[in-house]
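Input record, target 12 of the design panel.
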């Protein structure tokens, strides 16, 4: 994620503007909260927001622990801390790992049910006012609200409008399904063999976000809750693998990792790619004046039941000390509120998790100036949880799946054989 000095300063200025809000009276006793978040790049918004929060809550001090390199590492760190009884007070948990976190910590009474705090704010009315039902659900496990959503990111499409127009397409009205997009990619690739029609870089993606997207957009599921086995051992899983192979054979996709793919797109050599909204600023920088860049929402082959997996994290409270819990709630409420979301979105390009943040006092003028950033917010009602697998081996499962997907895309394994391998190996690793 590229964060320019200008955007970071913009975030700081916004944070300082928020500091002019009325201060909230709090207990006279000073409380220090130890807070752990993932991804060092996120310091760009966590730090100014914490400074703003502390100005408004002079008796609460935010002490950031060294950020974990990624969600998987943060999860392991917290699970180890649970054993030693040295948990952070607040943790920003990756959505796809929250169920595993809760199922480990809840039996030990090491994670806080937010219901009493939400009830004190107005209960369901508070949730409805601030969060869409699907985004609120990202912090819910076993029917209990343990977290509130902070960052949210669902895959979007980046379009080279010049190449799309040359191939007879309309960048303002892109095909809404993958078969339609493959047809367009084929036309783009036919104009110049050096140009890839499209890029769906699942073969080199560091996690299974784009795999889940391919399943979810068809209305499928990752795991069958009843059998605890994979739920894509059917036409949906097979169709996903057939599409990936078609991206190469018909759409002219090159098998690159996501960074190389971005570079190729920026150089004007790919019709359209799928990536995270966090890359908007980076990709705009790569494209420069070379062509007109546009973004649009992720395609749904099943518009009725399809959706997109939502990456990101929710804030959970791990402390069981009442004074710390009360202080932690004030902090969680702030970072998921519209003022903080206004800062976070401008710095990251993610979609805002708080509904109020899209209003005229916050992001509306920014979106008018930056329509490519707004795209992600249009998918909030399609947000589905980025799921994890039972057994806590999600990272190893993805690496295994990715190797097989790569072999299918290269034509070394048929989609049918590839699906059989993915199903067998995923089921084996879940148990």
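The sequence produced for target 12 reads:
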């Amino acid at each position: 994620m590229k964060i320019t000095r200008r955007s970071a300063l913009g975030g700081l200025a916004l944070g300082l503007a928020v500091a002019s809000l009325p201060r909230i009276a709090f207990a006279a006793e000073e409380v220090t909260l130890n807070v752990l978040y993932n991804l060092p790049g996120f310091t760009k918004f966590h730090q100014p927001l914490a400074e703003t929060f502390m100005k408004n809550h002079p008796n609460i001090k935010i002490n950031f622990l060294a950020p974990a390199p990624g969600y998987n590492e943060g999860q392991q760190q917290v699970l180890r801390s649970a054993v030693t009884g040295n948990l952070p007070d607040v943790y920003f948990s990756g959505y796809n790992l929250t169920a595993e976190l809760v199922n480990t910590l809840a039996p030990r009474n090491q994670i806080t049910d937010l219901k009493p705090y939400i009830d004190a704010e107005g209960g369901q009315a508070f949730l409805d006012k601030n969060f869409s039902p699907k985004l609120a659900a990202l912090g819910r496990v076993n029917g209990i609200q343990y977290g509130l959503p902070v960052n949210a990111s669902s895959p979007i499409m980046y379009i080279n409008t010049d190449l799309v127009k040359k191939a007879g397409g309309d960048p303002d009205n892109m095909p809404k399904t993958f078969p339609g997009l493959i047809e367009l990619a084929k036309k783009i690739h036919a104009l110049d063999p050096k140009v890839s029609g499209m890029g769906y870089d699942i073969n080199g993606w560091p996690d299974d976000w784009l795999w889940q997207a391919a399943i979810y957009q068809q209305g499928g599921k990752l795991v069958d809750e009843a059998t605890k086995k994979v739920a894509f051992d059917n036409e949906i899983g097979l169709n996903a693998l057939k599409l990936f192979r078609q991206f190469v054979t018909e759409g002219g996709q090159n098998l690159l990792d996501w960074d190389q793919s971005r570079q190729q797109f920026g150089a004007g050599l790919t019709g359209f790619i799928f990536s995270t909204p966090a890359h908007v600023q980076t990709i705009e920088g790569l494209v420069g004046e070379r062509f007109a860049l546009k973004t649009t929402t992720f395609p749904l082959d099943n518009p009725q039941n399809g959706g997109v997996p939502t990456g990101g994290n929710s804030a959970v409270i791990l402390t069981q000390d009442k004074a710390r819990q009360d202080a932690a709630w004030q902090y969680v409420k702030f970072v998921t509120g519209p003022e903080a979301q206004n800062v976070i979105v401008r710095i990251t390009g993610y979609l805002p998790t708080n509904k109020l943040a899209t209003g005229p006092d916050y992001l509306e003028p920014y979106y008018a100036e930056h329509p490519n950033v707004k795209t992600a917010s249009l998918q909030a009602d399609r947000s589905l949880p980025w799921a994890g697998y039972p057994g806590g081996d999600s990272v190893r499962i993805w690496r295994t799946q990715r190797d097989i997907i790569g072999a299918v895309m290269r034509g070394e394994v048929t989609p049918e054989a590839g699906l059989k391998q993915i199903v067998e190996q995923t089921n084996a690793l879940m148990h």
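Residues 1-9, 11-27 have pLDDT under 50 and may be disordered.
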